[in-house]
Design a protein that fits this description.
It is globular and about 55 Å long. A three-stranded antiparallel sheet has the order 3-4-5. A three-stranded antiparallel sheet has the order 6-7-8. A two-stranded antiparallel ribbon has the order 1-2. The chain has a domain of 169 residues: Glycosyltransferase, CATH 1.50.10. Helix content is 47%, strand content 5%. It has 14 helices and ten strands. Helix 2 packs parallel to helix 4 and helix 2 packs parallel to helix 14. With 437 residues, the chain is mainly alpha-helical.
Length: 437
């Protein structure tokens, strides 16, 4: 690993990240997506806490305050918030700008996307990042009612009261994709949200047992439902007591698959998907949903399949093709989700940052350094010039295909660089209970 180059990349990443600030908070990019996107801004909050000086902390707080202001009456967090009449090449569905709506002023909350359940969970994690980094109990206390409302809204997404979220397709970061029902990615975030709430409640001196108990319950159920193999033996009596319906699908899965070296991406009503969802599995390692044996299998499989080539890391394996059960004709919209594109096997630098962090969390420091070097080169490449920090890359060619100057491409580089340099991940450290057993 060329430390001179990685240090330069870290410096350039901070310039991109801090350069994307707007009046409402952190924009996804100044080139496109010129709104405060809940998911992007909260992911970037992990990095803003690592920037030099107080500017990063203040930018993150501004994003948190904007999201809180536009929280729905039922408690859901907005997908994004932005100013009207700002030209934005990413707003194809809006005709290139957010158009003013009667009675809503100059700032709009997005209503285009399908609910996006993960926004509320990243909002909770974003507050955890702020509190853990600053220790500011006043700011946290002011937001506590909003956080509890967000968690209540999430609990109502557990429509059958099994303890896990039931999520519609296209309702999370894969907002043009057919994951559905008990989705790995969303439920790993659900676990993290309960855990964050518990630790923040402890900090405020509030009752916290329910938060910690719910976190443990979600973690156990993710492992029972979505890990198939000898590392997670099933107890049919316990499953029948918790959720009889799971037995039908689990018996089928164990017969047809026997075992897998990764968590399944989702389990639906008597059906399932058999493919590797990169983001969900990496978060399972980072947050400690996966124990050491499972983490090793996940990371070995990812590397063995070449998902970190030519750059880290591709979002899906294998890709979904026309005729597959999970193919949707809307994957062809704007050519986004055809094979090896976007969510359907495209490579994302921000996912590469989570990959490096997961490697560090699992104690694979040499591999983490190698992947940080590869991620450095990925972020340096651009469609129009060097150090573009592009949005996403073609999964096979490794060429940039999205919009440049993306906040979360830059932010997760900072997070990964910090993890490699310190030999441990920020915010989700072992001594705070975020551990791969």
């Amino acid at each position: 690993m060329n430390e001179t180059l990685t240090d330069e990349a870290r410096s350039r990443a901070e310039q991109v990240l801090l350069g994307n600030v707007g009046e409402l908070g952190l924009l996804a990019s100044r080139r496109a997506y010129q709104q405060v996107w809940a998911r992007d801004s909260m992911v970037c909050g992990l990095a803003l806490m690592l920037c030099q000086g107080a500017e990063g902390v203040q930018i993150h707080r501004r994003s948190l305050e904007t999201l809180r202001k536009f929280q729905t009456p039922l408690g859901n967090m907005p997908h994004n918030v932005g100013y009207v009449n700002v030209h934005d090449p990413a707003l194809v569905a809006h005709g290139g700008t957010l158009a003013a709506r009667a009675g809503e002023g100059d700032v709009l909350r997005d209503t285009t996307h399908s609910g996006c359940v993960d926004n509320s969970m990243w909002y909770v994690i974003g507050h955890y990042a702020s509190y853990r980094s600053t220790g500011d109990k006043t700011f946290l206390r002011d937001a506590w009612e909003s956080l509890e409302k967000a968690m209540l809204w999430l609990r109502y997404q557990d429509s059958n009261e099994c303890g896990l979220l039931e999520v519609h397709e296209a309702m999370d970061w894969s907002d043009l994709f057919a994951n559905r029902y008990n989705i790995l990615y969303d439920n790993v975030l659900y676990y993290a949200s309960w855990k964050c709430m518990g630790q923040m409640a402890d900090g405020l001196g509030l009752p916290s047992a329910q938060y910690h108990e719910n976190a443990a319950d979600v973690r156990r159920k993710i492992n029972v439902l979505l890990w198939i193999g000898p590392e997670e033996p099933k107890d049919p009596d316990w499953i029948a007591c918790e959720r009889m319906e799971w037995l039908y699908t689990l018996r089928r899965v164990e017969t047809e698959l026997v075992e897998r070296p990764f968590y399944l991406p989702y389990m639906a009503f008597r059906e399932y998907a058999d493919r590797f969802d990169t983001f969900g599995n990496l978060l399972a390692v980072l947050f400690g949903v996966a124990d050491g044996r499972k983490a090793d299998k996940i990371l070995d499989y990812l590397h063995g399949c070449g998902l970190d080539q030519p750059f880290p890391v591709r979002a899906l394996y294998p890709v979904i093709r026309l005729g597959d059960r999970d193919w949707r004709d809307y994957y062809r919209v704007r050519n986004l989700n055809v094979p090896h594109h976007y969510h359907n096997g495209g490579a994302w630098p921000f996912l590469g940052g989570f990959y490096v962090a997961a490697l560090v969390q699992a104690g694979r420091m040499e591999q983490a350094r190698e992947q940080l070097a590869s991620l450095t080169e990925m972020n340096r490449r651009g469609r129009y010039g060097e150090w573009e920090f592009n949005e996403w890359f073609h999964g096979q060619s490794g060429r940039p295909m999205g919009f440049g100057q993306q906040s979360w491409s830059a932010g997760m580089y900072i997070y990964a660089h910090d993890a490699v340099n310190r030999g441990r991940v920020s915010l989700f450290e072992v001594h705070h209970g975020w551990t791969v057993d």
